[in-house]
Amino acid sequence: MSDRDDELGNDGQFDENGDPIEVELTDEERAELGPDHPLADLSPFADGFEGTNIDDDSDFELEDSEYQSDAENVFEELLARVGEQAPQPRLEATRRAVELIGDPQRTYPVIHITGTNGKTSTSRITESILRAYGLRTGLMTSPHLVRVNERIVIDGRPISNRALAENWADIRPFLLMVDAELLAKGEEALTYFEALTVLAFASFAEAPVDVAILEVGMGGEWDSTNVADGQVAVFSPIALDHTHRLGSTISEIARTKAGIIKPAAAIVSALQTADAQIELERAADLTESTMGVEGDAFELVSSDVAVGGQLITVRGIAGTYSDLFMPLFGEFQGHNAALAIAAVESFLGAGTQALVHDVLAEGLATVTSPGRLQVIGAEPTVIVDAAHNPHGAAALAAALKEYFTFEDIAFVIAVLDDKDAAGIVGALAPIANRFYVTTSESERAIAPEELVETVRTFTDETTDFDTFAEAIELARSWAGENERRAVVVTGSITLVGEALALAKAEGWKP
């Protein structure tokens, strides 16, 4: 054994008593991690204990409050890692971490969901249907809007602060062990998303869940969620986004996303462009997987506006389901529901057994999709939508015209610097009366004075504001002059989160 192996605890192994060997770092390695990284100045092995999830609804709020600071500490440790804007194109680091904690992702079946737009809503709809069937579900989505707990949902509820903190304490020593191994090889320590993925897998196993629905963070092939093997691989519409990471063409992006397809998987896909479809079909052939595509294997037959949402009829892979109410707005959500139904059919009955209509109806009727065409205020009406690319903005504009009857709409908008701001504004401009341009809390947000120049290429009815609070206050004041006016907050998921937090703090009533 080399001196370096000895310093690192024999390559992250255990002693004769089965206890983890303590990790030690040189001063240079601690400096490389940075002062905020938990390995830099804390003992690498905190006292851990078995994770838990709170099931007693009567005690949940009290418990959540008692462990608030513990959950905040977890979030701070995650933030000390490399952020999600700079994911590492690798799987080995996550594989090593889950290996050390016993490969929890292999203890439950997985439905794996990727795409460019609609994957979060599709994930939530899939989870709600499976929960209506009596299955205990685990759901991982990203990003969160207000609290990191939202990303790990167990049985329809964000993980409690207590479970988040205790499960983190359980896995933290092993994450730090992997950090040390990576640094010894000259590689980046586990990133925010890699560590969070391991936490989600461990939390699902501890719950335990009957099935996990995993939304890919970015891409697919090298996304850390891909250490799990999905029996069903689901693809929402694929479009241009994250081109600096995934490729500059639809074909390149689709090829990366197709990396989630495992041998003999069941594939269900939304209607795709020809280029994307070719890549998915190639991956299906290579993995000897079955494939059902919207329009052929299943389809949204109809979507009709209803009070509080829509009535849809879906022809699934194994049956047709009529007059299902779903409390989500926008025909695109009807397409997401059709995709989710096909995914559940593939999971429960290999696509050969129709779903029970009443159970499916219950699952759709109770689904939620926070931040997606969500009404968060009335008098005046305020709607938030997390559209952050042109495809999503176009869907938002179409849904506002179809499902609402506003005479005037003002958009409060902020956009991140790696997004197509002109494409987003261009999709919204035809239905906009004015834009209130601002920024979000993200360090990557375009400066308001820069974004407003982009908006002015489409309309002169715009003003820029240094803070979201200023922008939304004046927008609401304008909308309050006429009950047929509305304010829509969009362009950035971070901005939507700020709007939700403000609505809660100020007691807005939807």
UniProtKB/TrEMBL annotation:
Alphabetized GO MF terms: ATP binding; dihydrofolate synthase activity; metal ion binding; tetrahydrofolylpolyglutamate synthase activity
Pfam families in alphabetical order: Mur_ligase_C, Mur_ligase_M
Region entry Disordered, spans: 1-54
EC primary class: ligase
Domain of life: Bacteria
Any one annotated GO CC term: cytoplasm
UniProtKB keywords: ATP-binding, Ligase, Magnesium, Metal-binding, Nucleotide-binding
Domain called Mur ligase central: residue spans: 113-344
Organism whose genome encodes this protein: Salinibacterium amurskyense
Domain named Mur ligase C-terminal: residues: 371-492
EC number: 6.3.2.17
Gene3D superfamilies linked to this entry: Mur ligase, C-terminal domain, Mur-like, catalytic domain
The keyword Ligase belongs to this UniProt entry's keyword annotation: yes
Family in the record: Belongs to the folylpolyglutamate synthase family.
Record field: catalytic activity: (6S)-5,6,7,8-tetrahydrofolyl-(gamma-L-Glu)(n) + L-glutamate + ATP = (6S)-5,6,7,8-tetrahydrofolyl-(gamma-L-Glu)(n+1) + ADP + phosphate + H(+)
Acidic residues compositional bias, start-end: 1-30
Protein name per the record: tetrahydrofolate synthase
